[in-house]
Structures are given as structure tokens and as C-alpha cells.
Predict the structure.
Amino acid sequence: MNSKNHHPEALSPRAPQSAFLTRLLAALLFFPALLAAQNSAELYGHVHTPGPDGQPVRLVEVRLTLASKTDSSFRFETATDSTGAYSFTDIPAGTYALTARLEAYEEAAREVVVEAGSLLEVTLELKLKPVREAVEVTGETPGIQPEQTSSQAEIKHATLQNAPLVNERFQDALPLVPGVVRGADGLIKIKGARSTQTGWLVNSANVTDPVTGEQAINLPTDVIQDVEVLPNPFDAQYGKFAGAVTSVETRPAGDKWKYSLQNFIPRLRKREGVTRGIESFTPRFTLGGPLLKERLTLLQSFQYRFVRSPVTSLPETEQDTELESFDSFTQLDATFNPNHRLTLAVSFYPQKSRFANLNT
């Protein structure tokens, strides 16, 4: 049997070769970084306001763009700290445009030539933008337009829908107009004129009650487009009125079918701590839309009102007046051409009162 002995001394001649290869590999890895450090530069500085006592400006956008590059993405950006300082590192050699920007300040710009391995300091000054204010004064001679010789106020459909109306009548919204009040007799007075001196128009038709001076017909609030109050109707189109005129315009149906249901929950009546029937029930239903597209539209509205109003000076079980009414309004709008339209409106409004004028 032959035996072979292995000794550690047999590897010793290769050890110097391994150390040499390690040093060579480290040099190859370190050489590019050393070469880049020798070819790159560092730029730093401060941004402050002009003058010997200039104050540092913080959060200034400082941008360094290579002038020879058309690509705007080849740039360095930073912002100044609380001392107004900024810095850029590892900058390749070349010619750069150094700019500083901040809102309310004028832009500061410098051209900087960066050499390989250099350390540059550049200070920038920011000046406040001058305040420019222009005031233009125009005027015109006030004149009287022939088509409008009196002041007027309008109540739109949205107000009638959202305002808290006690009796759910558009007349309850009229006191929102300056100069319009409701007297102790419950009648509307405009600019001091008596109710018998005022007039009421619906779609330009006179609907004034010759006895009370109030509106002679009832309209559901859902069909009213706007209410216009003219305290001094001096225009020629208004006649037979010594006082104010209230003009009501109803709204046509739209080009799509729509409907609305409101107030379908009754309010209970409580007397002597006990529920005794219904105090009020005022449901409303409105439907409108086209019968013939762009030619004929229909608007139909129903409103039922049952209201008990207490007279507080009487015993609780014998103090209620009752009002029951039903209002139906139908409107057809026909369009023959842009200049010719025909509107047909039919209103039906029976009303019943019980214990009217009840008092002590």
C-alpha cells in the first residue's frame, strides 16, 4: 500500500498570487469612482435680499441647467434652507444657467462655468416684484328706459318652493318684498295702497276680485314660474289700477316628463293633551312633459288643503275654524314656430269654510 501525505506548506507558493489579484480587482473597482470624483465639481451658495443687510430667503427653488443641452430634463434642482443656503454635488464640467425663483420675487439668474474637480460659491439676490395697481373709472349718464318707468321686484320659483309659507300660497311670500305688508285684516298692502287699489294678473290676464281687491283664483305654487311686484305701475300696459300690480307667470312643462309629490303626511291635532283628528293635510301632485316633441307640452297640478286654525281665546275643543279646498291647474303649450306660441290654461278651485270668522 502506498500512502501520500498532504502538508499545508504545499499551498504557500500560491498565496502571493491570490493577494495580487485581490489588490488588482480593488484598483479596477475604485478607479472609475476616483476618475468621476476628479471630473465632477461642487457648487454652493446663499440666496438673500439685496443690500448690505440682505436677509436670507428660505424655500427658494434653485435650478442648475446645462446650457448646451436642449433637453430640459437634464438639470439639478434644490431648495434653500432656513439660512438661505443651497448646494449641488457631483456636477459634471460644463457651462450652466443658475436660476432662483420664488413667488412675489423677481427671478435671479447667473451663468456659471464649472471646471472638473472645482468648488464654486455663487450668491444670488432676490428682489421683490414691484406692486402695480390700475384703477379704471367708467361712467354713464343715467337715463329712463321707456319700457320700465317703475321699480319692481321678483320672487322666483325656487323661493316659492323653499320658503316657509304658512298657507302654502304665493301671497304668503309677497311680504319678502320691501314695501309689501299684510294688514290686520289679512289683506296684502303694497306701498301704503289699499288692497282695493291694487291689481292681480296671471299670464297678463286680470284676475282681481272687484270686492276685496285680492286675487280671485287660487294657483298651486308648483306651477308658478315667478311673481313680479310693481309698486308704481305707470306703464301703459297696466290700467285700472291706482296702486300696485302683482303679476304672476306660470311655467310651461319641460321637454322631459317629470313629477313631484309633496306633503303627503298629515299633521295631527292635539287638544287638552289628547290627539283629536287631523289639524292639517296639504298634499300636492304635479306632472308635466311633452305630448308632441317640441310641439305640445302638458302641465297638470293638483293641490288639496284641509286646515284647522285655532282661536286661542275659546275653549280648546271649540276653537277651530276649518278650511277645505281643492286646486286643479292644467296648462297646454303649443309651439307652431319660434315666433308663434299658444297657451291654454284651465283652473278649477272649489273652497269650503266652516266656522268662519269665529271669535270670542
